[in-house]
Amino acid sequence: CIREDLVNATLRGTVRYPHLFIGGEWVAPEGGGMLDSIDPATGRPWASVAYGGRRDIDKAVAAARAALDGPWGRMPGHERAALLYRLADIYQKRAPELTLLEARDSGRALRETRGDIGAHANWYRWFASLADKIWGRTIPMDDSVHIYTSRLPVGVVGAITPWNAPMLTTSWKLGPALATGCTVVLKPAEQTPVTALELAKMIEEAGFPPGVVNVVPGYGKDGAGEHLVAHPDVDKIAFTGEGATAKAILKTGADTLKRFSFELGGKAPHIIFGDADVEQALNAATSSAWAVCGQSCALGSRVLVERPVYDRVVEVFAERAAKVRVGMPLDEATHMGPQSSDEQLRKTLSYVDLGQAEGAQLVTGGRRITSGALADGYFVQPTVFAGVSNQMRIAREEIFGPVASLIPFDGEEEAVAIANDTAYGLTAGLWSRDLGRAHRVAAKIRAGIVWVNTYRYIRWTTPYGGFKASGWGRENGVEALDSYLETRTTVVST
Ligand code: NAD
């Protein structure tokens, strides 16, 4: 059910998006120009997309402020909910097209992208269901005062998203922002701008008032991203991306003391105890190692394995890595597409060299694929390192490639110590048939989400976010609303 003309246009590489979406209108950029979106499977441009600069961000922020001061700011929660439900329906209908476009833009395999995008409407519906339940409290004191709190939208939100999961990270921000009554300027990553502009068409079709959502693709440093962060009339930045970028954003935004929420990197421990259902654990651990070509913050990139089952785990990882079908993203048979950019490919390959230099054993993979139809794209083999120590840089730094590091351990205490010996704290997994151990270990792990006998279970209802260098705040669940709201306390003398 994908529009044939769109499929053909994407395959010819003739897709053009010449406009930004500002104040409910499609406008040519004033401060930017046109950028090429590169197809990571071929290394060639496939779409030409408008990008904005300072002047466009100024216009978008002004439109978002005007919307906040206009009908949107006075709209009751149930009406915002109705718009969000309508958006969810449109999104669901258009999911096949979005899937195709995101697979082209990011290089993620079609079958994987379909599962991801196919679920996003649930996020919009979840936040729609919360939009009319944003309540304050009454606080009892004594007869002389009446105290109550009100929860108000934080204001204009600058949403800055990464290239690895463009529509997922967008729905996690747009949903709570719109449910709480904020307005948004969305700046997608320069590598993957297309689907955000398609989303703007859906916002328009759903009937959101002009200026409630504005979409301005652009660059980060010295570009639309930095202008958005520095802008004095932006109340909050909701960011997903790298820790180094978050630090730069904090510095740029410091003068305006705006609010920030950050979803950053991870180096998740995926712990397999000897008493686990090892086959099930292996299914989860191996598929998580290659998912999104290793380009997801949630993946279990450090596989901690209890020594009695270590050799078996290494063997199965090697077998399965060799069976991963690496191929063109739009081929239905493909399990794993290319890395999203040349830069990311080089980064992954440099860590493969580093791992060997550090003394880890390269069990399989580690090379760029240079043959046949994949030769020009950014394809890399699924890679397994054994004999990894947690002190090695391949175990400490986020590689963002399909590279699994298998680390042996002895007993619960060592597993917990290794799991927590990291700058990050986003996700973790553990496998054990001993329920007491599972709860005991889960309680000691410093991470925003701990999966027990499952992995990567993420839903709209489940709070998601990081401890330590993995971020500030939570997305999803009811907790997601908190960072989009201010609390006003009213104290009335009676
Ligand atoms: P990135 O930090 O390079 O870029 C993210 C966004 O920030 C892009 O839109 C970019 O244009 C913008 N940007 C860059 N510099 C900026 C600046 N100085 N000011 C304002 N904006 C700027 O990240 P990436 O490489 O696109 O994404 C990969 C990273 O995202 C990984 O570290 C990954 O772990 C993380 N990630 C985290 C989660 C999560 O939920 N925790 C989810 C997905 C990705």
From TrEMBL:
<dbReference type="InterPro" id="IPR016163">
    <property type="entry name" value="Ald_DH_C"/>
</dbReference>
<keyword id="KW-0560">Oxidoreductase</keyword>
<dbReference type="Pfam" id="PF00171">
    <property type="entry name" value="Aldedh"/>
</dbReference>
<feature type="domain" description="Aldehyde dehydrogenase">
    <location>
        <begin position="26"/>
        <end position="489"/>
    </location>
</feature>
<dbReference type="InterPro" id="IPR016162">
    <property type="entry name" value="Ald_DH_N"/>
</dbReference>
<feature type="active site">
    <location>
        <position position="263"/>
    </location>
</feature>
<dbReference type="InterPro" id="IPR015590">
    <property type="entry name" value="Aldehyde_DH_dom"/>
</dbReference>
<protein>
    <submittedName>
        <fullName>Aldehyde dehydrogenase (NAD+)</fullName>
    </submittedName>
</protein>
<dbReference type="InterPro" id="IPR016161">
    <property type="entry name" value="Ald_DH/histidinol_DH"/>
</dbReference>
<keyword id="KW-0558">Oxidation</keyword>
<dbReference type="InterPro" id="IPR029510">
    <property type="entry name" value="Ald_DH_CS_GLU"/>
</dbReference>
<comment type="similarity">
    <text>Belongs to the aldehyde dehydrogenase family.</text>
</comment>
<dbReference type="GO" id="GO:0016620">
    <property type="term" value="F:oxidoreductase activity, acting on the aldehyde or oxo group of donors, NAD or NADP as acceptor"/>
</dbReference>
